[in-house]
Specification:
Length: about 675
Amino acid sequence: MRLINKIWIAAAIMAGLAACAPEAAHEDVKMHPEASADAVPGQLLVRFDARVADILDKAGVTKSGPAMPMKRSGILTVDEILDMVDGYQIERIFPVDVRSEEKARQEGLHLWYVVRFSEDIPVEKVAADLAGLGEVSRVEFNRTLKRANTKKAVPLTMEKVRQLTSKSRAATFDDPLLAEQWHLVNNGDLRQTKFVKDADVQVEKAWHELGCTGDPSIIVAVLDEGVDVSHPDLNASMWVNEGEVWRSDKDNDGNGYAGDYHGYNFVQKTGVIATDSRNDTGHGTHVAGVIAAVNNNGIGISSIAGGNGSTPGVKIMSCQIFSGAYAGTVLEEVRAIKYAADNGAVILQCSWGYISGAANPYDWTPQFSTDEEWETYNLLEKKALDYFIHNAGSPSGVIDGGIAVFAGGNESAAAASYPGAYPDFVAVAATAADFTPAVYSNYGPGTTISAPGGDQDYYWEYADDDHWVGEIGCILSTLPKNVSESGYGYMEGTSMACPHVSGVVALGLSYAAQLRRHFTAEEFKALLYETATPIDQYMKGTKQYKRYVADLLDSAPMMTLDMDNFKGGMGHGQVNAYALLNAVKGAGMEMKFPNLFVAEGGQTTVSPSMYMDGATFSVNLEDSSVASAEIVGGMMVVKGLKEGQTKATVTGSRTDSFVITVRAAASGNGWL
């Protein structure tokens, strides 16, 4: 039940020097010591030197992608090597999205390709051959993403749901299971001991006193197993790509992915999000429920940012990188990360990670221990994450940049796991219902914040009709029907702590949207840390628990944790929604109406109410021969008439000046 999705990706091959020194000799192929067993046969991830970018463009291979692989690169030396292996195909790792192609090229992502060939050919040999070419600046193995724990959740039976519903106490919302969600609202009375009042994420006062329960303009990308898009407590919270058709096999919006209506299944290369495998754990649906299960709808659970029943909350974009017994690869992972940024997500919810480099080697296979080591062996992964944190959001929106939130790891190690431990990201440790560290949680260097994650081994003594019910100390959330008949159940882990932080960040950004405040991603992360609840005062004495109590029950061995070891190791403290939202009120900058870009002959639509108050709005253009603009149903509709620029103003509660740029030979949104 402790379910951080462990990725044993470990590493990459490095070959070649940077493009800035192409005349130098290439390095020998390098790989992490633990990498060889997980290399995907018949595949390599290749970054070409920038000098051959024009050749790739002219050969048309730039337009390749998951739906359209090609058989030639156009680079003679590369094709000569690969012509000697059967089944040669090449495709761009990040397919062209006309809206973001310019940014992708600035980041160098257009130079990365996946090369496929016969699995009978040793992948190391092909890698070495390609690494010797001056046109190739790097070669990496495609790694399989392996989960160390695939146990399913502890489901709530239909009978148990009925019992809990009948006993439900008066609560904030009418969701009958909210009273069991101590991680959201902890009154200290769920059981007699080990539940401390307010040892939660402090969301109730944020809902009531500040009137914020989420905003649909904030999108959270869940990189995980698929999210059950038909779940009655989640369906209304799913992001919808208006440019696509449900279950279509056509890429209607031209973003490189067909039928991506609620997100994309990167494992199976389809827009159909899958949760029905007998090997699915329900993990993706569970974390999504913590963030945005629909509040106040009279069924199931509540969530941090799921609206209030009459107004919607934040939206969940399902980016599926795990499916049943089959794990995805680095290829699927990095595609999902860029997809999230390009399609409007501003928070990356990642309840997975590598094994901490500080993990006990008798129980685990420790992996990356330093920032430099992770960077060295995971360049493509880092580039994709850099793209997200730099290019998600908007300079004129609520947040400029994106926030990537990772589980800190479940090895009881004195250092967080990567990628979360890297300074650019958020790494989450897990706590129990009394602010103490969960007995499995990683802590120490790299850990930036804590959140409730559940702790079944700590709640070993609880019994109900002579049955152990330690799961009451775990996290209650949504599950697919094939995992739980009722659609609900318990899990624990830093996997569950992670979405509490993602949910609070989403709620804070929702409040910023309501107040029309703008932040950079770094500014908002700083607020997240500054407003966390200090919890070092709870790190005293010892903490007793029974190891593996769910499996061994009465025979589980009694264990002890020294709380002094955790002082200063749980990040900045426990995430605090109420404090964060209060800080948002006095921080950031006032949002201004943005400059607009539109294609000649195309149009774009924007809502002035996102940027200013006003019962009505008006718009005026300096040069009406370049573009036209009118307010229709509260929305500004701008049409490009001819290439050029014109100054304009929009008036509501105030008047903002902006510029309309009309581009020729561009997409409908004006991107080249």
